[in-house]
Amino acid sequence: MISIIVAVAENYAIGKKGDLLCHMPADLKHFKEITSGKTVMMGERTFFSLPKHPLPNRRNIVLTDVKGKTFEGAEAVYSIEEMVNAVKGEEEAFVIGGGMVYRQAMEIADKLYITHIHHSWEDADTFFPEIKESEWKLLSAERHEADEKNPYAYTYAEYGRR
Ligand SMILES: NC(=O)c1ccc[n+]([C@@H]2O[C@H](COP(=O)([O-])OP(=O)(O)OC[C@H]3O[C@@H](n4cnc5c(N)ncnc54)[C@H](OP(=O)(O)O)[C@@H]3O)[C@@H](O)[C@H]2O)c1
Hints:
By secondary structure, this protein is α/β, with parallel strands linked by helices. It contains four helices and ten strands. Helix 2 (44-49) links the parallel strand 3 (39-43) and strand 4 (59-63). Bound molecules: NADP nicotinamide-adenine-dinucleotide phosphate. Residues 6-7, 14-15, 18-20, 42-46, 49, 63-66, 78-80, 96-101, 104, 126 line the site of NADP nicotinamide-adenine-dinucleotide phosphate.
């Protein structure tokens, strides 16, 4: 099964100038809990945007168009089909970004782990595709308020394909 995990603003923004929109330690912890011990798959830009790459305690797979390109500590794949084949038989593998890869992965994912950040960034340059009601069913939602470490209120939501 292939799942998507992402933090999305109210205007569907997910990134700006190659970086995340805000620092939310609670969400980083949530991401780590869900993905640890599993496979994480990402675009080349997201891989290099990680403060520490590869992500530890996870099998890292990086998508690139540049045939023959390699990544230290990660496996390279050169198409979405190859990415899907690489995790065949795994119970759950995660697509972790970024915008370009999410857009393609939305067609094949079975489940979405969305952290809805209750704020909008009008100056963002990377966006998540629309989560259509007709395609995705809300399975659970857990709201948390902002606190001294996490500047915005947020909701952990899980969606399954209808
Ligand atoms: N909010 C969140 O949860 C979250 C999570 C992750 C990332 N982000 C943000 O998203 C932004 C990065 O996203 P992005 O859209 O710019 O880049 P990206 O999706 O991380 O990476 C794009 C690259 O992936 C490769 N690629 C994509 N589709 C491919 C395909 N079908 N076949 C082969 N290679 C493929 C290409 O690499 P080559 O150029 O090497 O060919 C492409 O340039 C950053 O701002 C990051 O902080 C946010």
